[in-house]
Amino acid sequence: MVFRIIQVVMVALVGVVMMSAILTGGGNVIGQTALYGMIVVFFVGLMSPKGGVLLMIILAGYSDMLKRLMVLETNISMFDLTYVLGMAPMALAGTVVACVVQKIFSGKIEKRDVVTFGVATVFLVIGAALGLKSGGGMRALRLVADYGAFSYLIFVLPILYPTRDEILKLVKTTILIFVPVALYGIWQRTFGLADFEHAYLLTGLSSESRQLLDLEVRPFSTLNAATSLTMVTASAVILILCLRRERKISPLLSFTLVVVFAMSCFMTFTRVGWAVLFASLCLIPVLRYKSTTFLMYVGGIGSFILVVLNADLIIDNLPHWQNKLYGKTEVSAGEGQGLRIMTLSDRFIGFENMKRPENWTPFGIKEEGARIYGLSDRYSTTFSHDAISGFLFKFGYVPLACGILMGLFFLASLHRAIFKLPFDQQRFCQLALAGIFGMLCSLATGGTVFQFPANIFFWFLFAMVLITIGEKPRPVEEGGKEEKEAVFGRLKPAGAFRP
């Protein structure tokens, strides 16, 4: 009892000191609050790992709204933005430290823990390398967080939520937390941005400031960009299907949520999300069989090679195809965004440059001022606007080949493990895997799959697969008969109708 009283007094004293520093510091109040908030959320994750994960999810959905509210104050700086965006990674960092300490002191370190921690560390190294290549500064920190920090979810989630039932409870909570995000995206498309959001874009501190030059601003809801909103809502649809498959939500609620998230995805008029959702749904039946899975890889690799070889022809024909899409009738600004394919030329320029032998260097292009992820320029031999050619130009074919070989080995092991599972677990893993591959399709347009907070949904899907593989088969009494199921319910024998 005395110890609890001491804890309460200490927390109160720390709170008073923090509030005094915030109010008398002279900087942006929200930014200063976020600075101390980073420390607080780290200790929340350290003392309560599950609480840290939940806090990270909430911050993933709404921390960007705090950035916009900073325009109500003065003295906005890039440091203030860093403090706000740093809270979610710090919450996860506390959780990771807690899980590592727990595993070390309990002595129950499993092979899966070592593998997932190693994979996450590899992504952290990649993020650090990308940060160094970007020239350092705030952009470097963001790349480290996007590519590296959140990958540790595949390490902590199987430890904290070791069964499908537990991880799906977290997924359901996550979906409900992001429902307002999807709804606000629909509101923005229908009624436009709020005044303070326009004021924030005018500061130039957001990458979405470029939208002010467009005919109609694409909605980005409470997130940092329209691409983030479209990726999050597209992946959320797959997560909802996973919930419904395990009967964690009712048919009516699942249908309503799918409509809300799919509509929000569509109304961003950002095609990468449309492609991710379409690809994910198409891959669900493909991944059910070994033969079609193999054909998927062969077809995907072959299609990419054909696109690279014919990139120049595609670029030359884009204006003609664009005129065909628009036709002779006028289109609205929103329809124009959805049908605008000329912006794809940036990606095809990168693919065209992959055909240049001088760009295939062992460890990246050393040319001074190489234009990678810069302004579109077909005559720049090192221009790139996709993750694949960009990685080749920055790091060379040796790291790229090593990454591809490691990825193929990992995927082969993953598929082998999935096809050995009982039918019920197989189908669940294949549904989640369809979402993973669908999100990876976005690599053809850039690294949006690893962009916060879309990366959280990506690693959630991955963790769900790993948890299911490591889970013991359910008894017949609990799991029911392992018969074939549809996504929205179990198939009934003919004549066995049940209302």
TrEMBL record:
Keyword Cell inner membrane found: no
Biased composition annotated in UniProt, kind: Basic and acidic residues: 477-487
Claim: Membrane is one of the keywords in the record: yes
Key words of the record: Membrane, Transmembrane, Transmembrane helix
Region (Disordered) residue spans: 477-499
Annotated TM spans: 6-23, 35-61, 81-101, 113-132, 144-163, 170-187, 223-242, 294-315, 397-419, 431-450, 456-471
Name of the featured protein: O-antigen ligase domain-containing protein
Species in which this protein is naturally found: Haloferula chungangensis
